[in-house]
């Protein structure tokens, strides 16, 4: 398996469940667990941060206008463009210095933005009254990312401070508490 298919396949594993959830959103104005954000704001954050990441690497992801009311279409076009970047071997194999160390652009995409897709999938689901369960592999990814971020994760605008998990909480509830979220 080449690095290209590895990064693209790993990206797809993060993006597809998020895409399925975006498709099911019925109330874009519903508040999320992210203070001050509704579902629309959350999706805009994901799109904007991925676009900004690509731009910092010298690649452009177009703004898919359509209309802000057609968020599903906007997301599908955006997600397709990011997946194409994840499959571009020249792009994903470039070295990159990050706040958590040296890695390739593809590894950084997965580490930071794959993390974002996992965590915000839960947030978006909660905004719609849904409860999702992370797989053990997803929880592993979230925990590895949190460990690498250290205290930097709790700077303003990133994550709320960690919460205390209830006594006897399951693994997901403990991880969500580390993310500043109540299960």
UniProtKB/TrEMBL annotation:
Organism: Micrococcus flavus
Protein name: Uncharacterized protein (TIGR03086 family)
Superkingdom as given in the UniProt entry: Bacteria
Domain Mycothiol-dependent maleylpyruvate isomerase metal-binding: 13-125
A single GO molecular function term of this UniProt record: metal ion binding
